Amino acid sequence: MTAFVFGVLSSLAASGLVLVLGLLRGSRPLWWLVAACSWCTGTGLGRVYRYQSSAERDIARELGRARWIKVLAGRGNILTREVFSPLWSGDLPLESVQILLPDPSPRADSWLDRRSHDVRRFDPGFTSNLLRSQVQTNIDYLVHASGAQRSFELRRFNLPNSYRVIATDRAAYITFYSNSAHGRSSPCLYARTSGLLYAFALQQFDSAWMDSSPVSTAS
Questions:
Q1: What is 51-214's CATH number, 3.30.870.10, 3.30.70.1450, 3.40.50.1000, 3.90.245.10?
Q2: For residue 29, what pLDDT is reported?
Q3: Does 206 or 177 have the greater pLDDT score?
Q4: Residue 149 pLDDT more than 60?
Q5: In what order do the strands lie in the sheet with 45-49?
Q6: Model pTM?
Q7: Has residue 90 got a pLDDT over 60?
Q8: In the chain, how many H helices and how many E strands?
Q9: More confident residue, 15 or 156
Q10: Which of 51, 119, 176, 186 is 20 to 30 A from 19 (CA-CA)?
């Protein structure tokens, strides 16, 4: 696993200059430069969004063309917003939907508590139980909203809350969380299926899925 991650980081370093330009300018005309550079390095990086929230329109479009969806999130707020509303209404005929959210139950070794502690350093309004409460609220929402999805699975994990993955059979949107900013303020990467970043996203999701516990969605 360590060697794989180092491979990803070294490939990204080769694309560093173009990525910096893309982040600083935030303009769509530079995306073709990012894509060309990622083709040379094998990362499969197609776009860079300066903020995670600015990718939501493209994520919604991607979901509409997907055969299956995998989501690993540190909180899951996006799952309750308009981006995912066609999924819960049953408008998207999908083969499977797999959702991973942090385990909000109190425990001595909770990674959710560690993430909450990090957030409190830069957000004074973030109380110790707020993140846990928000995750539980999102889980409750999904339990009720997923009734129209036959192939839906929701699971809880207790692992480092260091990134968000929204993946389909066509692409992956990856956000690496910072210890000094909310996820919505972090850059989001769009990875194509043929590249190393997409493989990394699926590998991380599958590893977390194997080490998670199911949430009952039975009514």
A1: 3.30.870.10
A2: 47
A3: 206
A4: yes
A5: 45-49, 188-192, 171-176, 163-168, 68-72, 96-102, 152-157, 213-214
A6: 0.82
A7: yes
A8: 8, 8
A9: 156
A10: 119
Establish how many alpha carbons lie within 13 A of residue 82's alpha carbon, considering only the half-sphere containing its beta carbon: 5
User: How much is the pLDDT for 78?
Assistant: 95
Nearest to 142 by CA among 62, 87, 65: 87
- CB neighbours of 71 closer than 8 A, spacing ≥ 6? 79, 98, 99, 100, 165, 166, 167
**Residue 219 tokens, joined:** 């009514």
> What confidence score (pLDDT) does residue 218 get?
67
Return the structure tokens found at 59. Answer: 């994520």
Backbone angles phi, psi at 65, to 5 degrees: -110, 5
> Which amino acid makes up residue 133?
S
Torsion of Cα atoms, 72 then 74 then 115 then 140, to 10°: -120
